């Protein structure tokens, strides 16, 4: 089927780069009615990936919603990425997705086959996740947007929060870093077809295999790394767990070319938004190059899972993740959780000691 | 000095226009870029540093004027630079383009078997060789699958994981589109991109050393 629309030409911000800054969000919710319910295990106040509500002692529902403007030109690919990104929050909580509802905005004059392809992309990924698209809602809007609201289930005993890391845990991350920079380079026509396939393939990859590979191990905390970048999400984990995180710049797997693009200033606006939000609590050693620091603030649309795993299980988890390649694109041991020494919550060193 | 009005333009655009302008001989190593957002200001500062030039920012009505100056012709042309230094410092994964000035290699794979003889043995050999290449310190610049070799990058091939590893290490993986169509495999491609004979002729006539298996 021919769909000639170049979707990313229709939008200003791409993917998770369009996310409202974390600091701004906290302000928006100030002073709202404070309704408490002991069954709400994870809600607003936690800055976690999804809401979790306990129905029975052994059953809770996990709810999440995610949508954004096109990050890929091809409608089918965009649909898949949006769905993989929305489903990711369920995996990040340790849950299993069961149903999903489409959320869509399209320009009135957008070709119907392109609209269909976006929805088909979403449906394909939801099916791959073993869940069902049960409905949805669409409106007309000048700029296209697509995403899903996903519901999952979990036994509360297996819940993976982002605020429960232990001192001594090892941090392992499951996708190469630099998705936002590379998509910006593609938008600027600096990167080629091979890079497009690489980064789009990565964004379309479900975090299901990573979540499943991690199940047997003592994972104390988990989050997916998306719009707030490696450093923003790591900061949330460190703050929530009242710990300090040390990351090592030389342990990251960066997508090909992104350090070059970053040093040339091919950076999405989200890099600076994330920097502003996290900077006060993040200390980056002077020998970490600016390009590397910038990429660690780069929004990762449909990024991977970050596990804080018991140090004794770290080797086994890393091996299990590697064995699941390519369904798990990477297994990078990016840092460790330490006791908070009163200083910045996240410290980035150039090299692993 | 060249002046670019980038009001109303976001993310990569002002930088890309400035990069192009710096390459023009008329620019003589400097360009003044008018922008209306701080992201563009910051990105242009990084571009100037990357090109070993200076950046001066002045507030103007509705935005900023960023003047990049002192960029040598060589730096304006050179797309990379910093990444090589990072690789040396052990911070970045080596990418072939930046790793060294050594001659790069394009490998052509035209068959499911390596060498003449028993096809089963040939297949074992090609599988072993592709695995070995994927584990090498320097992977090939590019690998092109054609004729019967096109099936090796498609679903059902035992080589897919190793070819993916090659790709992950920075090797460009391509399969001939005509060959995929001939074998009815266009929908089955599992790794890398699709290429055509125009591109292949450029690879053959280009600067890379060409090796055909």
What does this structure look like?
The complex is a heterodimer of chains A (353) and B (213). Chain A is built from eleven helices and 13 strands. Chain A is α+β, with helices and mostly antiparallel strands and 353 residues long. Chain A folds into two domains: 152 residues, PurM-like, N-terminal domain (60s Ribosomal Protein L30, Chain: A, 2-Layer Sandwich); 180 residues, PurM-like C-terminal domain (Phosphoribosyl-aminoimidazole Synthetase, Chain A, domain 2, Alpha-Beta Complex), CATH 3.90.650.10. A seven-stranded mixed beta sheet of chain A has the order 8-11-7-12-9-13-10. A six-stranded mixed beta sheet of chain A has the order 1-2-3-6-4-5. In chain A, strand 2 and strand 3 form a beta hairpin. In chain A, helix 2 runs parallel beside helix 3, helix 4 crosses helix 5 and helix 7 packs parallel to helix 9. Chain B is an alpha/beta fold. Chain B contains nine helices and nine strands. A five-stranded parallel beta sheet of chain B has the order 8-7-6-5-9. A four-stranded mixed beta sheet of chain B has the order 1-2-4-3, covered by helices on one side. About 7% of the residues of chain B have low confidence. Chains A and B meet through helix 4, helix 5, helix 8 and helix 10 of A and helix 1, helix 2, helix 4, helix 7 and strand 7 of B.
